[in-house]
Amino acid sequence: PLQRLKDVLLSGTSLEECKDAARFDISKDNSTVSITVVGASGDLAKKKIFPALFALYYEDCLPEHFTIFGYARSKMTDAELRNMVSQTLTCRIDKRENCTEKMELFLKRCFYHSGQYDSLDNFAELDKKLKEHEDGRVSNRIFYLSIPPNIFVDAVKCASLSASSANGWTRVIVEKPFGRDSESSAALTKDLKQYLEEDQIFRIDHYLGKELVENLSVLRFSNLIFEPLWSRQYIRSVQLIFSEDFGTEGRGGYFDHYGIIRDIMQNHLLQILALFAMETPVSLDAEDIRNEKVKVLRSMRPLKLEDTVPQGSLTPTFAAAALFIDNARWEGVPFLMKAGKALHDKRTEIRVQFRHVPGNLYKRNFGPDLDDATNELVIRVQPDEAIYLTINNKVPGLGMKLDRSNLNLLYAARYSKEIPDAYERLLLDAIEGERRLFIRSDELDAAWALFTPLLKELEEKNIIPEYYPYGSRSPVGVHYLAARHNVKWG
Ligand code: NDP
Ligand code: BG6
């Protein structure tokens, strides 16, 4: 049954369908899954983890025997945890039946244990409670580290020594940031590996769980028309754009220490880039995909100060950079990244700009700037998920007027079902042991190797930021960067 489940998951099945596979597999065996949210009193646990667990439960994707424990230092009873958690659970818009009833049933499976993150004794108490709920079954355990990174290792040590499963598997989901640079990331990996094997560590990058990021490989490898164009021969530039229309609200302390390059570029945008640019993997197996991603990362040039924008004015809340992959497929193609907070809109997009049509017969219909006539493929990750291709088209009529139009796949119009949150997919994958969407340690090393020299230089030289007004489009310097590479931002 496990192989059957894996086949279903790897065949690109929807969450809805996977639910049947999961139910088929897990309800029949004598195992139980205990999920401990370490740092359950915090923001991420409330905002994302408990709602995602509820959504999985609601879709019947959790195994029959499961228990959820919140663990943190705050004093709370089970009832108080349930009350806190219940504030953020939501029902699927497209499936509201029995929702309140399901919520109550879900909350009954949630418990709380208060303890210190560095106390072997407190984790041993948790272990005792987990065993009571596991009731003699084979116990599989997940610890979700939803805590600040400086206490990751303490918590892993205690969870591993005092509360790991005696007869099943134990997995630990780790949230970013995974260090601040190559050295601290390597030290974190080394410390975690004192207590865990690499295959027990699930490093989460929630952008990999977003629907359109998952769809990237499907788009590329299952449509004949894209793959032949996917190279320097036809693609002039690729843009990875992240913007948020709010600032660092509520997370200022963390952000001040990390900044936008570490918060968004080195992980979320770089992961998308690696998936976008990788060679065809041997199979959809996690290791095959991660092998290809790591090759891309290792073929990239580490960033220099002059590749970023604006030179001498990089701000902690906004950054743009041009990255290059020095391999046969991508040599010379700029991958422009732009990430910023407190801008005029919230969106994440991949924009693929194609080259000019050589000897374009309709050149004179386009005016002086042929850039206005290039095709562009846009994958809008969020909001309003969409994939569209900008083409040139004749305006109907007797004259010969050309127009730019979109061939448009708007998800909301095409699919009626609500798109699952990234955390749902990733939690389900962690439960099933599917590692495809998690970051392997060599990927992490390669990702840090690209950004660490730049980050050090920025800090050593104490670069002065270029200011931009809250709610604006970006600092002006981004346009100079694009112009230097002879492209325009989409
Ligand atoms: P919080 O700052 O809310 O911390 C979570 C819990 O950890 C707190 O409720 C607190 O619980 C405990 N805690 C906080 N600070 C300390 C400290 N200095 N020493 C010991 N315990 C502490 O974090 P978030 O929930 O926002 O994030 C959790 C993890 O997820 C972090 O690694 C973060 O970087 C990452 N992350 C968060 C995102 C978000 O949107 N919030 C997005 C992506 C990643 P108590 O006092 O009860 O023990
Ligand atoms: C997190 C960053 O990883 O991603 C936050 O730490 C950012 O700064 C968030 O706001 C964005 O995630 P999403 O899914 O809301 O786009």
UniProtKB/TrEMBL annotation:
Reaction(s) the record says it catalyses: D-glucose 6-phosphate + NADP(+) = 6-phospho-D-glucono-1,5-lactone + NADPH + H(+)
Domain of life: Eukaryota
GO cellular component: chloroplast stroma
Keywords: Carbohydrate metabolism, Glucose metabolism, NADP, Oxidoreductase
Keyword Isomerase: no
Single GO MF descriptor: glucose-6-phosphate dehydrogenase activity
Domain called Glucose-6-phosphate dehydrogenase C-terminal: residue spans: 306-489
Ranges of residues in domain Glucose-6-phosphate dehydrogenase NAD-binding: 37-215
Protein family per UniProt: Belongs to the glucose-6-phosphate dehydrogenase family.
Protein name: glucose-6-phosphate dehydrogenase (NADP(+))
Organism: Actinidia rufa
Upper taxonomic lineage: Eukaryota, Viridiplantae, Streptophyta, Embryophyta, Tracheophyta
